[in-house]
Amino acid sequence: MREVYERAIANVPPAAEKRYWQRYIYLWINYALWEELEAEDPARTREVYKACLDLMPHKAFTFAKVRHLLLIAVPISQASMLPVQHSACILRVRLALIRPKKLFEHKFPL
Predict the structure, then answer these.
(1) 110 lies in a domain?
(2) pLDDT digit string (tens) for 46-71?
(3) Residue 102, CA distances (Å) to 18, 29, 65, 75, 106 in order
(4) Which domain holds residue 82?
(5) Alpha-carbon gap, residue 40 to 23, rounded angstroms
(6) Is 51 a domain residue?
(7) What is the domain count for the chain?
């Protein structure tokens, strides 16, 4: 299954327009969720989210769901993985990069 996801995410959208990237980003989300829930590999889950963040054209548009919520929710959902202070640090950094209104519409499961 991992090979299938890897082949699919290798096809990067040609332009930095949100309409092209929307399905591509949801493919990354599904891949990361598969790594977390089915493969049960938290380290690989973090790597997938980080690779997705590094690949996105942040100046053209934002996907708050990926850039912030899921990247913060993974450490929180796996309490043994990282301390809460680290998640709070990630949250502070992310707040500097996005429109805070969109982030505060979601609840974090602490």
Answers:
(1) no
(2) 888 888 888 887 677 767 666 665 66
(3) 17, 18, 9, 20, 8
(4) 2-104
(5) 24
(6) yes
(7) 1
**In this prediction, what percent of the chain has a pLDDT beyond 90?**
14
Backbone angles phi, psi at 3, to 5 degrees: -65, -35
Q: Cα(6)–Cα(17) distance, rounded to whole angstroms?
A: 22
**Per the domain annotation, does 109 fall within a domain?**
no
Q: Does the pLDDT at position 75 exceed 70?
A: no
Mean pLDDT of 87-105: 61
DSSP code, position 1: -
3-class SS of residue 29: helix
Yes or no: say if 36 and 42 are a contact pair by the CB < 8 Å rule.
yes
Decide if 35 is inside a domain: yes
In terms of DSSP H, where are the helices of 1-110?
Answer: 2-9, 18-37, 42-55, 64, 71-77, 84-97, 100-104
Residue 11 contacts by C-beta under 8 Å, 6 or more apart in sequence? 24
Each residue's pLDDT tens digit, 3-14: 999 999 999 998
